[in-house]
Specification:
- The structure is a homodimer.
- By secondary structure, chain A is an alpha/beta fold.
- Chain A folds into two domains: about 150 residues, Glutaconate Coenzyme A-transferase (3-Layer(aba) Sandwich); about 240 residues, Glutaconate Coenzyme A-transferase (3-Layer(aba) Sandwich), CATH 3.40.1080.
- In chain A, about 25% of the residues lie in helices and about 20% in strands.
- Chain A has 15 helices and 28 strands.
- The interface between A and B is large, with 61 and 61 residues.
């Protein structure tokens, strides 16, 4: 075991992991080497269609073998049918020992559990949400799953740390030569930013579509030059699970209060001025924060530069109202966003690399002024856990949390002071997702805690008379309500690795005794 | 010397050339190895601007050294100011022995001659048009220039055969973080397809703009993730030289006749049906061909798929009339095209890689039904020369000639039977640009010659009663008018290499005695 710069104990070697580099600060690692290039190919000019008829033909054509790594995107979210169907077809063809490299998994993917049990899937490098996360916590794999942020995953693929043999890309529309988009079709999902990096880096790329259109599909999000084969299926997804209708701001008073505090703090920071850039998640308190920021921007007649992230109807309204010039969208969160990205020239699809890769020429999160993020747990060093639950179960992915936290000038965490008698703030989080040095403030319904590292912000918040507390004060408030907590008892079995966006290891997840 | 598969004598080693691989047929070479990746970088999240003030700061920041390779695009054509200014700045800073890697050079670049003479520029890998071509023919360099097609250049960069240390990218609009586009600004040039590959492959990328806009410039053609530095200058170009007004169809009866023959042949081929795809150059006979094809399509109510290439007002009209769904544009040829690409969602910018690289997953030329191309000389084996003039001077680049000839199902060459008492057709062309096996027909004002390899086309043309001649008959017609030609006397000094699009050498250019 070695101890990284924030005191987390990391094994010196991890099975299935190239080289363990302990986390050494959010901005300290310098990458070495070249961007990973896939093998050069020759395109047969007489072969004007890449269509194959069956999954087994596809597997043979791409040279799929036991032990390979296969990737998928999660733009179809809980409506996705492609991962389950592809893995079922793989199982039917007798493949085993495959590493799944999804950008995320959802409840709908619980069907994969039987393929985990039968050895078709031998590990997962990617977010393991919900039922699959529970399965992982029960110790279903012989090696740990590796969790990466959206930017970190792009980095890892481009650095050759995360090698994908075959990317299967669900396509709401595609032509027979592989040009694809998520912007139209019965299974439209909007942006396909996470899949763009896979299309660029995977050794073989297969487009899976339920909406074959005449050549050429243009403009395309993923190009024919990147694609090896196309397969047509009945349905890539269930529209009801792909996107929700409109994302609505909460009515919950506690969440509204947190949103209000967040907006007050952003205002106090002085960032709300022409050129302001902003990102929030789609959670209730975050959107409440956005709604109060909107009011402030309208009041000040601020002309912002861009909003980014998963785009919601809320940001679309703000853009239409002239509050932002541009929306950078890596995944479209609701029906309005799906519609807008196909129509609005200022609604821009971006890849995961463009969004958040720390090892390119400069990603979008570097230009973010303020971001509002959530947490399942924070600690007195401002470290944030979004991966594990109070019982130690590894149920959530990283998303863009550590990317935006690191990139934005002002990173605000909003979360209720306690949930089900478990306080938000602990002495030390069970799992570190985003390091405290990248977090400026933690906001609960009881007030604002500012990281002592950001002296200027403390000063500004006090000048404005905001409800500022120390982390210890806020922790006490939660502890008083919830009472003494028993800590989760852990085994030595490492079930997950939390890779920081720069490729170092910020933490590992140990199996709780209660899940053995 | 070795002899390649079309009988051209090629040296076994060429100075400055990695490995000589003789041409072995248009579709035979299988690439090996990986796509070349540049070095991984770290973006400093606190550095929100990549702007530098002077060229000398830029040269220092990118680590420019004597002997390096620097690239430029030619989207500003004869209005370009960036190449001359950058090279002048390099000369002023005392740099020497630089290899210039332009996508093409124009008359305006004759200013470079003094930097060739003073040793600032020691060779050119790229098209050497006009005055620079004449200089090269006079033997100004110690090693041959290397000419590549648009697709071949993209291939060479992506295969790591053509390494660029610093790409200087002229940008009609850019933001301080490097996002750029050619679609707006006083120096707007439309598509910047040739520059896109440089932005992806060069070790360092510098954006040079005369139109700095607020961050973010989006949608962008080249992204911030690819760019290292930005410099603002007074003027990147002279609009009058960048694009012409409207490209007009010729009134010249000979050219109209050739265009008519070309359209007749395309019609006879049976390709004019729904899904038809088409490309022509902007030359008079080519556009005349397009105008007759347009009439045929209207008559048959054909719904074509795409037009590609350098896009002209002519194709824009056809697209608006519903004759093509999509225009794929690698460079916009006239003002209408520049305007259209910024407004029309079916007018799609494509990279040189997407356009024509034979070693990716499939380029656009592979999907072309018919292309009409020009020639300075053809021979009885249907080989085409577009590079050297009758006196042996190397005055023209390859452009997309060999790419589209190879990709299209029907490749038609149109050229007058003779020019200034020099016949079009010779026993053997002085320089092979596009091999005869990729050419289906040669059309002059006196009729149509079909390559005997395409038996079906001969059959169809005869059925339609077209004016078909053998290559020998057509050659005789020209010879009778022009009289006996004296062949150009050549030295052994190789001044140029004609690289085939797949990286093999199809021919070399020897210095004519008259230019020594």
């Amino acid at each position: 075991m070695i101890t990284n710069s924030i005191g987390r104990k990391i094994p010196t070697t991890i099975q299935g992991y190239k080289e363990v580099i302990p986390y050494e600060g959010a901005f300290n690692r310098n990458p070495v080497g070249l961007i990973h290039g896939r093998a050069l190919r020759k395109s047969d000019r007489l072969k004007r269609s890449k269509l194959l008829n069956t999954y087994s033909e596809v597997f043979e054509a791409v040279g799929l073998k036991d032990g390979m790594a296969i990737s998928f995107h999660h733009h179809l979210r809980n409506g996705d049918k492609v991962i389950n169907e592809t893995v079922a077809a793989l199982a039917e063809c007798g493949y085993k020992d495959l590493t799944l490299v999804p950008t995320a998994l959802f409840g709908v993917h619980k069907e994969l559990i039987k393929y985990i049990e039968s050895g078709v899937i031998s590990c997962i490098y990617g977010s393991v949400n919900g039922p699959i996360g529970r399965k992982v916590t029960e110790g279903c794999f012989n090696r740990p799953v590796i969790l990466r942020s959206h930017g970190g995953r792009a980095r890892a693929m481009m650095a050759g740390d995360l090698k994908v043999d075959v990317a299967f890309i669900a396509a709401p529309a595609a032509d027979c030569y592989g040009n694809m988009t998520g912007k139209m079709g019965k299974s439209a999902c909007g942006a396909v930013g996470y899949a763009m990096t896979d299309a660029d880096c995977a050794e073989k790329v297969v487009v899976v579509t339920d909406n074959l259109v005449p050549y050429p599909l243009a403009p395309a999000s993923i190009l024919q030059t990147q694609v090896d084969y196309v397969i047509e299926v009945d349905k890539i997804g269930d529209p009801s699970g792909i996107v929700s209708g409109t994302t609505k701001v909460t009515n919950d008073p506690a969440r509204l209060k947190m949103g209000h505090f967040a907006a007050q703090l952003i205002n106090a920071s002085g960032l709300i001025k022409d050129g302001f850039s902003f990102q929030t998640g789609a959670g209730g308190a975050s959107l409440a924060g956005a709604s109060f920021v909107k009011e402030l921007m309208e009041e000040k007649q601020t002309k912002g530069s861009f909003a980014s992230g998963g785009i919601t109807s809320y940001f679309i309204e703000m853009q239409k109202a002239g509050l932002f010039r541009t929306m950078y969208d890596v995944q479209s969160f609701d029906l309005h966003a799906v519609k807008s990205i196909g129509e609005n020239v200022n609604h821009i699809e971006m890849s995961a690399d463009m969004y958040a890769n720390p090892h390119n020429g400069g990603c979008v999160v570097n230009q973010l002024d303020a971001v509002i993020l959530g947490a399942t747990e924070v600690d007195i060093d401002f470290n944030v856990n979004v991966n594990t639950e109070a019982d130690g179960a590894l149920l959530h992915g990283i998303g863009g949390h550590m990317d935006t936290a690191a990139g934005a000038q002002l990173t605000i965490i909003v979360a209720p002071l306690f949930r089900g008698r478990v306080p938000l703030i602990s002495e030390q989080v069970l799992t570190v997702t985003s390091p405290g040095e990248t977090v400026d403030a933690i906001i609960t319904e009881r007030g604002i805690v500012i990281n002592p590292r950001n002296e200027e912000l403390i000063e500004r918040a006090k000048e404005q008379g905001l409800n500022v507390k120390s982390i210890e004060e806020m922790k006490d408030l939660g502890d008083k309500i919830c009472g003494k907590q028993t800590s989760v008892e852990l085994t030595d079995n490492i079930i997950g690795v939390i890779e920081y966006r720069d490729g170092t290891i910020i933490d590992v997840v140990r199996q709780p005794v209660s899940f053995v």
